[in-house]
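Database export, one record per block. Field names are fixed; values are copied verbatim from the stored entry.
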Amino acid sequence: MTRKKAVVLLSGGVDSTTVAAIARAEGFEVYALTFDYGQRHAIEIECARTVAAQIRATQHLVARIDLRIFGGSALTGEFSVPKARTVEQVGAGIPITYVPARNTIFLSFALAWAEVLDASDIFIGVNAIDYSGYPDCRPEFIQAYERMANLATKAGVEGRQELAIHTPLIMLTKADIIRRGHDLAVDYSATSSCYDPSETGEACGYCDSCLIRKRGFVASGFKDPAAYRAEPQITNDVLR
């Protein structure tokens, strides 16, 4: 029996790795798509390659686009990555680590590849609970994009494709995501979440993404296998 194909956006972090494992567990043939977009935390690309091999992706593409030409983000420009912010600060407003229109761009590439593959399913690890306030992680964005996508392709117009964008993590806490991954035997030691890692890949321990990850592992009851330059201490969801 032929398995359905799915394009899975794979950054190499906790969420996208869990989503890739979910897609595979649901019986999809995984076509993993990673982006080298000029991000300062490019170590995640190597992590994505490792994860794609571990989940036995049918194909893994690394698309190279340079979002540094636009700037506007601490991940692609010269701004400093915010560190040691409280839970309240992380949850308030849209931080400088937001990359303008990133998920819109990434989903457009995924849509193009899905049409070529004759696939009707895209998986993305967006989350609207434990996240940094990015507008392109919200359910209403995904719903609007899915409606647009079904008007945007030859396959859609001809009725050969009715695209579905799967967001299995969108309303889960980070702890629940990690628990789900452990149920699927995900190896989180292969993942990287840090926005400002060292040249050897050690996590800084204090950027928003490190703190969200660390709080998630503490709450999940599982040990975080990430290597940190400075180990964050999390007590009652507050940075100490």
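Remark 1: The two ends are 53 Å apart (CA to CA).
Remark 2: Residues 236-240 have pLDDT under 50 and may be disordered.
End of record.
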